[in-house]
Write a structure and sequence with these properties.
The protein has about 280 residues and is α+β, with helices and mostly antiparallel strands. It has helices at about 15-30, 75-95, 100-130, 135-145, 145-160, 190-195, 215-220, 230, 255-270, 275-280; strands at about 50, 55, 60, 65, 200-205, 220-225, 235-240, 245-250. It binds flavin-adenine dinucleotide.
């Protein structure tokens, strides 16, 4: 991508390879002999976001919902995350397993993420385009090298730091992205992210799975046990959404109370397992 402060042309002026070569020579002293461009296009920097991601049955995702500078390579990634957040909610609503209000949580969770991305990419663009080279270098170095700043920017750009709001009294991990925990047993899935490929909720337990056979039978969630080496660092029960974020977790030491809490969480999040086999047999 090139940009030259003293040459600002409308979007519909054809782009030539000579223009790109000229910009490259100006900055790097050589154009590396580039030739035979396969594809060239001119783009401008829009920065805007729709006020709402949902209007009744219409839901917006990706660039239709937010558009911003390409700095930081965010647009496609954020759009994919929008779709991932929305997909399982749409499926649950269409199948009648969740209340229509679940779809409102799409906007509640993703709109703030889009707003932050528009803001962050705007700041990065302004740093890159600063007229004063020393100031540009100083700000660039701050973003890349000053620990807390660099961590914040890395967390935001990678998307790993994204957290969704959890209700009052929720476990501190609720709303965070679940780490790719190893699962116990020699068979697939060996890790949480493999288990999530079914597109269903995953209940992670640190105890033997037999204790949760009834719940797995009744509710629309797959139950897996966390591998021994990581079990001590994980709450005894963690319910992970199909998009990999933690829906619910508990540290409740009393097994009976923990069981009651679990059933309430499964009722709230997953709904009952559909009995397709029984229906088709009858
Ligand atoms: C120079 C540049 C570099 C970028 N680099 C990165 C990067 O490194 N990483 C990254 O994550 N993102 C990057 N992006 C952003 C990324 O390209 C976009 O965010 C992403 O393509 C948006 O995907 P989308 O599906 O939401 O929208 P689009 O890709 O715009 O898809 C919308 C589609 O809908 C079609 N359409 C429109 N109207 C209609 C209609 N009425 N009927 C039927 N079809 C219609 C369009 O033709 C288009 O195919 C970059 C963008 C630019 C401009």
């Amino acid at each position: 991508m090139t940009w030259y402060r003293h040459r600002r042309l409308p979007d519909d002026v054809p782009t030539t390879l000579e223009e790109v070569r000229e910009d490259t020579r100006r900055v790097l002293g050589t154009d590396f002999g580039m030739h035979d461009a396969r594809w060239l296009s001119r783009f401008h920097n829009d920065e805007r976001q729709v006020p709402h991601y949902r209007q009744g049955r219409v839901l917006l995702a990706g660039d239709a919902a937010h558009t911003h500078s390409p700095a930081g390579g965010q647009g496609m990634n954020v759009g994919l995350q929008d779709a991932f957040n929305l997909g399982w909610k749409l499926a649950a609503t269409v199948r009648g397993r969740a209340d229509d209000a679940l779809l409102d949580s799409y906007e509640a969770e993703r709109h703030p993420v889009g707003r932050r991305v528009v803001h962050l990419t705007g700041v990065l663009t302004r740093i890159v385009l600063l007229r004063t080279a020393p100031l540009r270098a100083l700000l660039g170095a701050t973003v890349m090298r000053v620990g807390p700043v660099a961590d914040t920017v890395a967390g935001a750009l990678s998307g790993i730091a994204i957290r969704y709001p959890a209700g009052p009294g929720a476990h501190p991990s609720a709303g965070a992205r679940a780490p790719d925990l190893p699962l116990s047993g020699d068979t697939m899935p060996g890790r949480l992210y493999e288990a999530l490929r079914t597109g269903r909720f995953v209940l992670l337990a640190t105890e033997p799975l037999e204790a949760y056979a009834r719940e797995e039978e009744a509710y629309d969630a797959d139950v897996h046990r966390v591998a021994e080496e990581r079990a001590a660092a994980v709450p005894p029960l963690v319910l992970v959404r199909p998009d990999g974020y933690i829906a619910w977790a508990t540290e409740q030491p009393d097994p009976t109370r923990r069981g009651h809490e679990l059933v309430a969480a499964l009722e709230h999040w997953c709904g009952r397992r559909a009995r397709h086999a029984a229906t088709s047999a009858s």
